[in-house]
Design a protein that fits this description.
This protein is an alpha/beta fold. Helices cover 42% and strands 18% of the residues.
Length: 325
């Protein structure tokens, strides 16, 4: 018997995934479109993107949107409590959905990426970093603004070399060459004065693109055994573990036996960072168990919506290849 459908949405800054699934855990439609970040997009634009994606998904699944029993929207830009009613007003007025609608930050759905749980924690590391913990009675999320990112730590190392605080290392020389700087002095002049002195050559567009990927370079060097890169990764892993500890404590959990989901492109791509994070986490929170997200975040949105609609989901549900990393 068809008990209707559930809707899951993963609305990121650069892309949005929208999917429909049935009560027996079968994916019926999955579509992708432009980003729907509430901080950077106007409501009309967001609704236009979501409405278009929903229409495509319904056509693919052969259903009307009135068949949706419950929805979970995980939206980039939903960062504080006041953002939720703002997002709800946009979504409910623009999409005409029925049934319960859960709206949260996109980090939230990583918690349900590999199954339903009523407590746990997530650490997400991509462009930035974010932590979320859910206890049985409350939840807590923070951006860890006190913690520098791996990108910041790497630039700090290069600036220390350029300004003479630290002697050049194999790591820093390699970094300067990758970004097209002839010397540490060339880097600091162009970094500091390239945009304000017409007689100082600015950093080129290709170099800026490579600088955005500095985390990848650090991770690659760390995995190759470079001691400076490994120290940066280890330091950042400590910050990530401390961020989990804060979120777990604020959510009212002891941390023992807690599952911590590691999500995001940086944690997925840098093996040494994952390993260092797990070591530091278990030192701070004995008994905590950390594991990588096995499925795309959109699966977490569908799992959550299914529990809102039907209270359960088959154990082998939603295992289609398109939902896996």
């Amino acid at each position: 018997m068809n008990r209707g459908f559930v809707l899951g949405v993963d609305g990121g800054g650069t892309k949005t995934h929208l999917a429909l699934a049935t009560s027996d855990g079968c994916l019926r439609a999955m579509v992708a479109g432009k980003g729907t970040n509430l901080e950077s997009q106007k409501p009309a634009v967001i609704i236009g993107i979501l409405s278009g994606l929903l229409a495509r998904a319904c056509k693919m699944a052969g259903v009307e949107r009135c068949a949706v029993r419950a929805s979970c929207f995980a939206m980039s830009g939903v960062d504080i409590h006041e953002d939720i009613p703002y997002a709800r007003k946009i979504i409910t007025s623009g999409l005409g959905l029925s049934g319960p609608i859960k709206i949260h930050n996109d980090a939230f759905i990583a918690l349900f990426n590999d199954g339903w749980r009523d407590s746990g924690a997530v650490v997400t590391v991509g462009t930035g970093h974010k932590w979320l913990a859910v206890g049985r009675k409350r939840e807590f999320m923070h951006d860890g603004l006190v913690f520098p990112g791996l990108h910041d730590l790497a630039l700090e190392e290069l600036l220390k070399v350029a300004e003479g605080y630290t002697e050049p290392s194999a790591f820093s020389r390699r970094m300067f060459r990758r970004f097209g700087f002839s010397s540490p002095e060339d880097f600091i002049r162009r970094w500091r004065y390239g945009g304000s002195r017409e007689y100082v050559k600015p950093i080129s567009a290709p170099a800026l693109k490579r600088l955005i990927r500095i985390k990848e370079f650090v991770g690659s060097d760390a995995q190759s055994g470079d001691p400076v890169a490994r120290s940066l990764v280890t330091r950042y892993a400590g910050f990530l573990a401390e961020g989990v500890q804060v979120a777990v404590r604020q959510a009212g959990e002891s941390g023992r036996g807690l599952t911590v989901v590691m999500s995001g492109s940086v944690l997925a791509g840098i093996i040494s960072l994952r390993s260092a994070f797990i070591r530091r986490l278990t030192a701070l929170i004995p008994g905590a168990v950390a594991g990588p997200a096995r499925f795309r975040p959109i699966r977490g949105a569908l799992v959550y919506a299914a529990h809102q609609a039907w209270g359960d989901m088959p154990p082998d549900a939603l295992t289609e290849k398109v939902l896996r990393y």
